[in-house]
């Protein structure tokens, strides 16, 4: 894997060992609240914190490849944050002020960082403005540390490429068991947070790309309600399904980040309708250790909890059900989710996404000030020409080709796919949740993501355990549009009752 110039700069920045012995907590697993307290008490500076993460990146990133680029101005930004804090600047009271954050490499920043979706086809492109979420993070005083690796084009180029692979970054690895699937497409965001190369990160999800890597790498991921966070300036797949959300080590950290990035953006019309779901006072207020009390949680055994005979997960989730019940949750068991087999077949979703990607990508590319490509056809040609260089493994581009062959949103196949997904949603999870008065649905790992994707619904993944070989798995709490407050209560209550997460072991 080629080392980017931005990563090479770390050698200059980090020709030292960061001494963390003077802190009364571990920087390696520190929460946003702990870091913020240390910053405000002047026992830690943003520069020291950034230097610590840079040293971690130098040590760990060559092993797992979670970060594609580091912001060459990151220490300048840290110094600015320290000066703002000393001068009592207006944004210095923000929970994320002076906190480093990593953005998935499909989230645009108007700075010295590239935004490429992991592809050489977009290397050197220049955006006209920050993405909506990056602008909100800067307004909150967060420090943009760099860009995270991902499954190339958010896993919308090739169906045969492994999770976490990009031409630019190589193969990202699971820090717990490096031979295990790290999942994607927000792979780098999850593994970088899990391995303590950064405090918090952003990922994106079209179908599973936050929930799955969070589950696979023992971190917390929130896939928000569609439009709750802006997608403007994000390399798209589908405006109908794309979301941006936090990936962090704790539910509380994820809530802090969510607070910072939600809200109206004039460049994303979906944020208009979704803004009504944002609770006055934000999401931090729902970090309630007794949040499970009285919550009605639905369990659909088939197909979600059908594990192989003797699976360690069978007993693990039975224990979790008991823990949820002991902490006041009301479990509504043995429910049936209508048409789940049709949803999981993905037939309608595949047709819709292929049609939407071609159009959405052209729109994104048209707004770039500079770009090597302007259409999906250009990207396909680039990949064909680049493969002749034989510099990187080639995994094909069958998904690109399928999308290029679509004929637009007026096609009968596309219209039928939309109608089918609407019917599956209304007669499936919506009916199940409303008829049973559920606050959330419980599912293992990322098995529910297609249900959430086609409906624009939220979900939160929380660490749930480790297999015999050390591979992590997660539990997902999901609901209908605007259910984030109750999902945060539930996820936080479960997290506090179990305290399952542990640092990675980097097993081979």
UniProtKB/TrEMBL annotation:
Entry-linked InterPro entries: Amidase_dom, AS_sf
Keyword Coiled coil: no
Keywords: Signal
Secretion signal, residue range per the UniProt entry: 1-22
Xref: Gene3D superfamilies: Amidase signature (AS) domain
Domain called Amidase: residue spans: 49-446
Record carries keyword tRNA processing: no
PANTHER family: AMIDASE, OS04G0183300 PROTEIN
Protein name: Amidase domain-containing protein
Species in which this protein is naturally found: Protea cynaroides
């Amino acid at each position: 894997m080629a080392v980017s110039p931005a990563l090479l700069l770390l050698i200059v920045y980090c020709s030292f060992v960061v001494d963390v012995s003077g802190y009364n907590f571990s920087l390696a697993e520190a929460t946003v609240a702990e870091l913020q307290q240390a910053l405000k008490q002047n026992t830690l500076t943003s520069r020291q914190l950034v230097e610590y993460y840079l040293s971690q990146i130098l040590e760990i990133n060559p092993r797992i490849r979670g970060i594609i680029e580091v912001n060459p101005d990151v220490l300048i930004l840290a110094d600015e944050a320290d000066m703002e804090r000393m001068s009592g600047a207006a944004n210095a009271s923000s929970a994320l002020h002076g906190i480093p954050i990593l953005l998935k490499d499909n989230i645009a920043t108007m700075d010295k960082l590239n935004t490429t979706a992991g592809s050489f086809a977009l290397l050197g492109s220049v955006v006209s403005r920050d993405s909506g979420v990056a602008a909100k993070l800067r307004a909150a005083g967060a420090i943009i540390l760099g860009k995270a690796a991902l499954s190339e084009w958010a896993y919308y180029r090739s169906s045969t490429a492994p999770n976490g692979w990009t031409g630019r970054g190589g193969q990202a690895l699971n820090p717990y068991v490096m031979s295990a699937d790290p999942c994607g497409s927000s792979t780098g965001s999850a593994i970088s947070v899990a391995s303590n190369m950064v405090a918090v990160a952003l990922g994106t999800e079209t179908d599973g790309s936050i929930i799955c890597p969070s589950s696979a790498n023992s971190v917390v991921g929130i896939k928000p309600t569609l439009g709750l966070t802006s997608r403007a300036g994000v390399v798209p797949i589908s405006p109908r399904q794309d979301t941006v959300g936090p990936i962090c080590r704790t539910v509380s950290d994820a809530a802090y980040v969510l607070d910072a990035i939600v809200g109206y953006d004039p460049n994303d019309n979906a944020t208009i309708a979704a803004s009504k779901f944002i609770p006055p006072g934000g999401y931090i207020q729902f970090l309630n250790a007794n949040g499970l009390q009285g919550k009605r949680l639905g369990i659909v055994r088939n197909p979600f909890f059908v594990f192989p005979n003797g699976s360690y997960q069978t007993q693990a989730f039975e224990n979790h059900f008991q823990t949820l019940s002991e902490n006041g949750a009301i479990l509504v068991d043995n429910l049936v989710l209508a048409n789940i087999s049709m949803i999981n077949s993905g037939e309608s979703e595949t047709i819709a996404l292929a049609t939407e990607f071609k159009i959405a990508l052209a729109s994104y590319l048209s707004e770039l000030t500079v770009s090597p490509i302007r259409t999906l056809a250009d990207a396909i040609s680039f990949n064909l020409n680049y493969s002749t260089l034989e510099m990187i493994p080639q995994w094909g581009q069958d998904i690109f080709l399928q999308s290029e062959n679509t004929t637009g949103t007026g096609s009968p196949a596309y219209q039928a796919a939309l109608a089918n997904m609407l019917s599956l949603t209304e007669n499936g999870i919506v009916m199940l949740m409303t008829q049973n008065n559920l606050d959330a649905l419980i599912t293992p790992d990322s098995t529910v993501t297609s249900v959430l994707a086609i409906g624009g619904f939220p979900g939160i993944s929380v660490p749930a355990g480790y297999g015999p070989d050390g591979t992590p798995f997660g539990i997902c709490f999901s609901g209908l549009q605007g259910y984030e407050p109750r999902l945060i209560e539930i996820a936080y209550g479960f997290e506090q009752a179990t305290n399952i997460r542990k640092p990675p072991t980097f097993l081979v």
